[in-house]
Amino acid sequence: MSDYAHLAGHRFPGGTYTLAPWLSWLWSDACKLEPDWGTAHQGLAYLVALRGAGVSIQDIFDLMDATADSGVVFGEFQVDYHGVLRPGATYKCEAEVVDVERKSGRRAGVFDKFTFQVKVREQGSEDVTVVCTNSWIFPRAEGE
Amino acid sequence: MTAADGLHAGRRVTPFSIESVDPARIKTVAAILQDPTPMHLDPAANRARGMGGALSTQGALNMTWFVETAVRFAGGVDRLVSFKVRFLANVFAGERFECTGTITAIDGDAARAELELVATADGRPVLGGTAVIKTG
Amino acid sequence: MATREIQVGQQLEPFVIESVDPEPMKTMAAILQDPNPIHFDPASTVALGLGDKTVNQGPTNVTWLTEFVQRFAGGAEQLVTLRIRFLGNVLAGDRFECTGMVTAVDADAGTAELEVGATSDGRPALGGRAVIKISD
Fold first, then answer.
1. Minimal C-alpha gap between C124 and chain B (Å)
2. N or C end of chain A, less CB within 10 A?
């Protein structure tokens, strides 16, 4: 039984994030896609969720007793689109841990799958724009 | 850098140059600085302002090359004492940037030298200023 | 976007990046404020035994897969869900290709399910599923 299962339901501070047009433009350009001042690429969901969640990668590592050297990797990433991200929009985000599952695989050994979810809404709107669900793999030594 | 290296007023500072300013680097600097100015991102923005179709560099980037000129001549980052720079004109992606100068004064007792530096982009003056370096 | 014939088994038009460019990885590192040097310093990838090619950031790969699905679906408004697993690294110089297939069509709901993935120089990079709208 994972020591970290109790983290399910843990809420992060959340926050707001404004998707600046210059950053949206630069994102598309860095991805070698036609940048446009009036359109944000929907791949920006990850950044909006991360920035708006009010949590840093280090905060997550601290919760899971991991460090930059622990070999933590992305597991899965899911975005549910209810609307379209827009350059210049300010987003209000809520973030929480969905669950932490202790698993083991022949190749991967023992690991914790840590899943958290961010709900992103335009400020002033009740409607959700996107929901991002992200899982990370935290390798554990046997017996940890 | 010591007097043995031929340090004297009037001696030329070794030129520092960027053969062709890279627009990709200008964009990375924009991201680092969180700078929203379109002229560092979108060539169309410069075209619209009658400045041709190339990105312009950030002042911070020009200044970094100016400082690099002084640091290389001085022989290390710990040998730069101070610098002062004026921004004269824009530098554009694709241009050849070059910073050169001369030693204008030597203070043997204090082990300092003062440099006057000037930078050009495709021959146009873009930066002017001075730097003080350690010589001992 | 008009309703169109979408059939189970239909292949999506591939999306290809012929050669992943290391320069934008630097811009992306600045945007993401991601300090991991494997994305911009080949010396660090060498030190980790990964060779001298820098590693593309996950969010860029996700953006490409999103673009791939979006083009098939006919626009950003047609996206419903995208679920992605990270299978392997995408390296500078790699040929990155997204492929996919329609696995289910729900005419009543007006949606289709796709199985999608990406390879980098032939190695599995991303795997996943998408749900898109197929009617107005």
1. 28
2. N
